[in-house]
Specification:
alpha+beta, seven-stranded antiparallel beta sheet, 5 helices, 7 strands
């Protein structure tokens, strides 16, 4: 398994950057996710802006750990039950019920197909060393 896949399997959350559908500005949000077969899956509340941004402009950036990927996203509502099972496996039944249980039918499933690695964000330690130089 590639290092990036291990990071995706083990990391509890990531930052998803979208292009604002009305402003055109970059918008980042920290999200829980599930990773399966090179795809990321998210559960969004129907009122959340970030999934609407993805719907208008599918190209996204995903930052997980220090790795930044490009990706293309879209709605995948037909996978709702499967994504809930992935979330339960990753986060546990109690946490998923706590965060998503009462509003299950209002959730939007967003799938992101990961593309190439765009780069690596320097760690805080590296940034401090660069500032000291």
């Amino acid at each position: 398994m590639a290092t990036s896949e291990i990071v995706l399997e083990e990391t509890p959350y990531l930052n998803l950057t979208t292009k604002g559908r009305t402003t055109g500005l970059s918008r980042s949000v920290e999200l829980w996710f599930a990773f399966e077969n090179g795809n990321l899956f998210f559960l969004a509340h129907e009122d959340s802006d970030w999934w609407k941004n993805v719907e208008k402009t599918p190209r996204v950036e995903v930052e997980v750990g220090e790795i930044i990927f490009e990706g293309n996203g879209g709605l995948a509502q037909e996978k709702l039950e499967h994504v809930f099972s992935l979330f339960r496996k990753k986060y546990g039944e109690d946490q998923v019920n706590r965060w998503y249980g009462g509003q299950r039918s209002n959730r939007k499933v967003v799938a992101v197909v990961l593309g190439k690695v765009l780069g690596k964000r320097p760690s805080e330690k590296m940034r401090l060393l660069e500032l000291a130089a």
